Amino acid sequence: MDQIKIGKFIAENRKKNGLTQMQLAEKLNITDRAVSKWENGRAMPDSSIMLALCKELQITVNDLLSGEVVTMEKYNEELEKNLIEMIKQKENSDRRLLRMEILTGILCLLPLLAATVITLAVPMAEWLATLILLACLIPIIIATPFMLRIEQTAGYYECAKCGYKYVPKYKSVFFAMHAGRTRYMKCHKCNTYSWQKKKLSKE
Length: 203
Prior knowledge:
The structure is a single chain. The protein has helices spanning about 5-15, 20-30, 30-40, 50-55, 60-65, 75-120, 125-155, 170-175, and strands at about 155-160, 165, 175-180, 180-185, 195-200. By secondary structure, it is of the alpha+beta class. It folds into three domains: about 5-70, Orthogonal Bundle (434 Repressor (Amino-terminal Domain)); about 90-155; about 155-203, no CATH class. It has a five-stranded antiparallel β-sheet. A hairpin with a 2-residue loop joins β3 (about 175-180) and β4. It is flat, with a radius of gyration of 24 Å.
C-alpha cells in the first residue's frame, strides 16, 4: 500500500467534507497529530477506527486502502490486492515482534548470567550473592508476561492432528509445555492435544 497516496486521499476527502484535521480527530476521538501523520504518509489509520474514518469521509475501506475511489469494474481486483498487502504487512509485523521477543529474552538473561559469574568468582557472603541473583531475576519476571503475549498473538499455532491454524488464548500459551516455539496445547477445532508449531501465515 502506498501510504503517501493514501495520506493525500484522506486529506482530499477530509477537505471535500468540510472538515479540519482537528474536527476529524474529535469525531474519531483521536489527536489531530494522528490525522496529520496519516495525511503526510508517515502512518496508517489503526484498523479499529478505519470504519469510522471511512464513514466520516464518505468512502469505502477499499477506497481508503487503494488511495482512490475504486470503480465497480476494478472493485474485486483492488480488494484482493489490498487484502494480500494487509496479510503481508501482518506477517512482517509478526516477524518483527518475534525478533523483539528473542532480543528481550537475551537482554533479560544477560544480567543474570553476569551476576552468576560474579558471585562464583568473587568471594562474598552467601546472603549477598543470593540478593544479587534475585535482583537480576526481576527483569525476567517483569518481561515474561509481555514475551508470552507476543508468543500468543504473533502468527498462528498449527495443530499437528488436523492442521488447523489459530491464535490460542493467553492462558493456553502460559500453561502449555513448550520446546522453543512449539507448545503442547488443545486444538480449538478437533479438541485434541498435540505439539503445535508456530506459523507466521495461515496459508
